[in-house]
Every structure is written in structure tokens, then in C-alpha cells.
Amino acid sequence: MLESERKVFEKMDGKSPMSKYWMPLVWATNIINRARKEGLIASDHIVQTLLVELSDIRRRLGALIGYDTVCVPLVYTQVVTLALYTYFVAALMGRQLVPAAPGSTSKYEPDVYFPLFTALQFCFYVGWLKVAEVLINPFGEDDDDIELNWLIDRHIKVCILLVYLH
After folding, report:
1. Overall pTM > 0.70
2. Cα distance between residue 57 and residue 146, in whole Å
């Protein structure tokens, strides 16, 4: 980011605290149009392709901001947690093997004392529940969250490197 762009960004920050993810896209659009006028871009088709790609980036950034700002209501996680634990209490009771009654002609004797598959289901479902709880706010500040700042810094460095290579 140039010093003049930083000043414009800070000036806009003073006017409105809203996100300004669109400003670099506007600057990129202006650079593309200026490059076409100066003859650095050979055809209008290339300009159109670049602008379509910028529009796609803007659309994806908007979707990403939507994921970050719209939180899953707390009641959903509570309902899923309650349903999960209720299911496994019922499964633990329902899958127990009951020995034959005394005096019964059945010779079946239970040889399984631990509900292995119920325990495996419990591990998988509780694991998925914990992953879902982490994904409720994927861009937070916890150790489990996506390191968005690192990704943005990396992409900016790659873009600058690409500019210097050409």
C-alpha cells in the first residue's frame, strides 16, 4: 500500500467505521483502466476479463464478510448439544443386552459387556460437535481459528512480488 493510499484509507476510516474491503478493488479497477488507456493492456477483452475477475473477488469478499458478521444463534448449539447427549443416553440404555430370565428355555448368554459401537459413535459425534463449535466464529482470536491476518499479509506479499517481477 502506498503512503497516499494509506492516507486515503485512514481518511475514510474517520468518516465511516464500516469495512472498506472494496477500496483496493476500486484502485485496482482504476489501474486497469489507466493501463488500457496508456496501451499497456493490448485489448478490451483482457480488460473485461480482469474486471470480471475483480468483480468475482468482490463477490467472494462480500460472502466472507457475511460469514464473519452473521453468527449462528446460541440456541442452535444448545439444541444440538442437548439432542446429542439425549440420543446417547437413550442409545446407551437401549443397546444394553438383557440376560435371559431365570427359568427361560433360551440359552443365550450375553458375551458383550461394553457397547463398543455406541462408544465409537459417541466419539465421532462429539468430535463433530466440537469442530462445529469452533467453526461458529472461524475468524476469531482463539488458537483454533483461521489466521486471516496471516493469509492477507501473505497474499499482499505475493501480489507485490508479482508486480516487481513484471
Report:
1. no
2. 19
> Can you give the residue range of the structural domain that contains 88?
74-99+108-135
Task: Report DSSP state, residue 102.
Answer: T
Residues in the chain: 166
Taking each helix axis as running N to C, give the angle between helix 74-94 and helix 116-135, from 0 to 180 degrees, rounded to the nearest 10. 180
Q: What is the DSSP letter of 26?
A: H
Which among 62, 71, 59, 85 has a CA at the least distance from the CA of 135? 71
* Alpha carbons 29 and 27: distance in angstroms, whole number: 5
Cβ proximity of 97 and 110 under 8 Å: yes
The answer on 54 and 19 residing in a single domain is yes
**Is 36 in contact with 45 (CB distance < 8 Å)?**
no
Same domain, 57 and 92: no
Instruction: Say if residue 25's pLDDT is above 80.
Output: yes
**Quick check: 51 and 32 in contact, CB under 8 A?**
yes
